[in-house]
Specification:
Layout lengths: L1 H7 L3 E5 L7 H11 L4 E6 L4 H10 L3 E4 L4 H22 L6 H8 L8 E6 L7 H15 L4 E5 L7 H4 L13 H5 L11 E2 L5 E3 L5 H4 L4 H14 L2 E5 L6 H9 L2 E6 L3 H17 L6 E8 L7 H8 L5 E4 L2 H10 L3 H4 L4 H14 L8 H5 L14
Parallel strand pairs: 1-2, 2-3, 4-8, 4-9, 5-7, 5-8, 9-10, 10-11
Antiparallel strand pairs: 6-7
Length: 379
């Protein structure tokens, strides 16, 4: 089967995780080397998170739990093929236009502004708090049109942190237009926060979120990129089609971790996944939140474990953060002089300043990560 795949170079491969001679995970790893353009849809009767994680690390693009309907299979194949086709089209920069691509990477893109995804492979590390306050801080720098999208569609908290009501306006209201191939009234469903941030909230209920697909999220992001200098997306701490579509579209992924051993372990696994996804090392930025040397884990320990440098740190200040959260006011507004606010401001300056330019996401994704991965071990 591997030899046939090499000969045929298929766009999509359906892989069963349970096979007699070689399991599907090992076969997927081999395909990733021999036929890197083939997108694997993994099928299994086991739906445990560990099988999903191992499949993702091996390079699978979708995971279906048996039994599934023919409609589900067809939809998955179409989504995977479309996503991979678009990615390859963006990555396919030839030598003839390499100079033009470099110019795009070093200055504002004609396609619009920067998209920054705020992600963490573990919940409870302050991801949403960072995303919200980063957006507010970016506006304060001046001269930037900043949008904040709640990409945690089922259980988004951006509205809570900003004291906004999502019942009347959310991304779910755009679904009819998206299904019709248009997205003309997006400004109608964007809420202008008093800070100046333009907010697109998550649906008001998990049921409403089911109608928002990965393709919908991608198209909304494309429009937000066009309309804004900076678009920040708060992503959920889970891997699914929508999350991957957002991460693919992003120019920069701010990956949040804390000084907890479970957070560091998950970050190391995520670094391995980013290698499989083809994300360049310059696309991923590690942000250590709630940094506190008294917790017994040093930054150097974190870096040795995940095999990457921590580019940004945000001090631990639970009192200011929780007080602001409970009031529905970003701590950057309620206590701008606090060290935690200054750390967020430095991060915002790094994003909107000279360090990050509005380069197409695929150009950044085309370079392979070079950081050396290490085993998760404490000595």
């Amino acid at each position: 089967a591997i030899e046939r795949a090499v000969a045929l170079a298929p766009d999509v491969v359906l892989m069963d995780i349970n096979m007699p001679d070689m399991d599907g995970i090992a076969a997927t790893e081999l395909l990733a080397v021999k036929v890197p353009t083939a997108a694997v849809v993994m099928m299994s009767v086991q739906g445990e998170a560990d099988y999903l994680r191992r499949s993702m690390l091996a390079g699978a693009r979708e995971f279906l739990v048996k039994p599934f309907s023919s409609d589900e299979l067809n939809a998955s194949i179409r989504q995977v093929w479309t996503r991979e086709r678009d990615k390859m089209a963006r990555i396919g920069i030839t030598a003839a236009n390499a100079e033009a691509a470099q110019r795009a990477a070093s200055g504002p893109s004609a396609d619009g502004g920067v998209v920054v995804a705020v992600f963490s492979p573990k919940g409870g590390v302050g991801r949403t708090t960072v995303a919200v306050n980063l957006a507010v801080a970016a506006v304060s720098i001046g001269g930037k049109r900043v949008a904040l999208m709640d990409g945690s569609l089922q259980f988004g908290d951006v509205g809570v942190l900003l004291n906004l009501n999502p019942k009347s306006k959310s991304i779910a209201d755009l679904v009819p237009e998206l299904n019709a191939g248009e997205i003309e009234s997006i400004d109608t469903f964007i809420i202008d926060h008093s800070s100046g941030v333009r907010v697109l909230l998550a649906p008001p209920s998990p049921e409403a979120a089911e109608h928002v697909t990965a393709n919908h999220a991608k198209r909304v992001l494309e429009r937000l990129r066009t309309d804004n200098d900076l678009t920040i997306v708060d992503c959920p701490a889970t891997f699914n089609d929508t999350t991957l579509a957002i991460l693919d579209e992003a120019d920069v992924i701010l990956t949040i971790l804390s000084l907890e051993i479970t957070s560091i372990k998950n970050m190391r696994l995520f670094m391995e996944v980013t290698d499989q996804l083809g994300y360049g090392s310059d696309k991923i930025r590690i942000v250590l939140n709630r940094a506190d040397a008294a917790l017994g884990i040093r930054v150097s320990d974190v870096e040795n474990s995940i095999g990457r440098k921590v580019q940004h740190t945000i001090v631990s200040d639970g009192r200011s953060v929780v007080y602001a959260l409970n009031r529905g006011v970003p701590f950057f507004l309620s206590n701008r002089e606090a060290q935690v606010s200054q750390d967020i401001l430095r991060l915002a300056n790094a994003i909107v300043g000279t360090e990050v330019k509005a380069a197409p996401a695929a150009i950044k994704a085309s370079s392979k990560a070079t950081a050396k991965k290490s085993l998760f071990a404490w000595r």
